[in-house]
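Risk register update: the risk of archive-format incompatibility is retired. Evidence:
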Amino acid sequence: MKKTFTLFYVAALVTTGTFSQETSYESIDDALKNVAYAESLYLKGEEISEIPQSIGKLVNLKKITITKTSITTLPDSFAMLKNLEEFTYNYNENTQGFPEVVSELTNLIDLQMAGNGFTEIPDSLVKLEQLEALYLHDNKLTEIPIVITRMTSLLEIDLVGNPIASFPPEISNLDNLEELLFDDEHALSEEQLRELKSLLPNCDVEY
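Archived output:
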């Protein structure tokens, strides 16, 4: 018996409104052929082991969620999705490092990359000059990456579930940051937390 997976999408219907549809397909290639005008795409399931290059043709996409799949990386064609504003890539545990192609999605406002086992994020992420929310919870980051201190558009950073033990003093560059989230997984001392708060006087630091 062939496996199927479920694809959910919302697509523009000329100028009269939108419609939504949930459908099962036998392959992701078959699914993407049917969503040429999609604005939102949801992909979930361990049977999904790769995202085909054809996803780059879905240039109307504004939101994508890819969660709990078996994929190891994202295709280069992902960089063609220039209208994307929200990208959620959570709990894809086979992923081999942070996909750098995400750095080409320069209209992103909201980026969620939780539970993928990341130990670092690429410097190229600084290209995301419109990004306001960055969710990196449940990864394996041991320090706040220096690149984040250059992403001055950020309003919210979620590092819950990471064993954060240090941060760069350049974090004070984040003048617009409103919320920085940790939890009991962090390894910062009380002295470090006081220093962090002094570097971000206008930010709500929660832990």
